[in-house]
Structure formats: structure tokens, C-alpha cells
Amino acid sequence: xxxxxxGPLAVCFATLLAACTTPxxxxxxxxxxxxxxxxxxxxxxxxIKPVQIEGNKSVxxxxxxxxxxxxxxRTVGSGRGRDLAGAVGAVAGATAGQVVEERATRQDAxxxxxxxxxxxxxxxxxxxxxxxxPGERVKILRRGDGAARVSKL
Length: 153
Fold this sequence. Notes:
Elements: H1 3-19, H2 31-34, E1 39-53, H3 59-73, H4 79-104, E2 107-116, E3 121-127, E4 137-142, E5 148-152
Antiparallel strand pairs: 1-2, 1-4, 2-3, 4-5
Helix pairs in contact: 1-3, 3-4
């Protein structure tokens, strides 16, 4: 495969990976969440720690990386050697594609510890899209399935 084709494939692959990110935001709600009742309790932020949310590891990264690796591997040698290089490139590319996808879809997040007014202390990890400060009054929104988020009062 010539390099003028590999470049566009890499750009397309990166664009698809970026489109697959799933935020765990404090301000972004899925359609299903918009129609869900939330229990609300209030409290005070006691600690904030920057963390990361693991990225996705899907078939997209594996297959995309395998395809690019196969095509690049086939540029080496000729005949059966070319086929073998393509196979080795596919395996290496699939592994690399999975790693690239996971890193590209990682998300900066916060672990927010809250002392609830009723005496309980909880910690919630969510996307770092809203700034909180220790001592700030907040509300905790909890769904029936246990999912929760921290929100400004």
C-alpha cells in the first residue's frame, strides 16, 4: 500500500475513535437519563482528586489497527514473504490499534468526595467538565440503579 493511502486511513481511523468516546459528564445526560427520576441529597465537598476514566477497547480499534498493520506489512518483501509480513503486521496492528483507541478515548475526571448532610461520606468519579472546590455546597443526584453525579446547587 502506498503512503498516500495510509495517511488518509490513519486520519479516518483517528476520527472514528474520537467519535466513539462516551462521556461520563456531570452536565451531559443520555436520552434515557432525561426520562429517569433522580433522588437528590445535599452535602459539602470535602476533597477533589484528579483521575482518569479508562478509554474504550472495542472491535473498532482492533479491526482498524489490524487492517492498517496488514496493509503496511504487505509492503515488505514479495510472494509468500509478503503474505507472512501482512499477517504479522495485522496482529501487531490489531494490538496497537486497541492501545491507540483506549488512549484516545480516555477522559480526564475528578474523584469528588462529599460529606452528605445526613452524615454519610461518598465519593463519585465523573468527567472533569464542572469545577468544584472543597467546602462548596453541592447536590448528589442518584438513579435507581446506583449511578450518581455531583451537581452545583
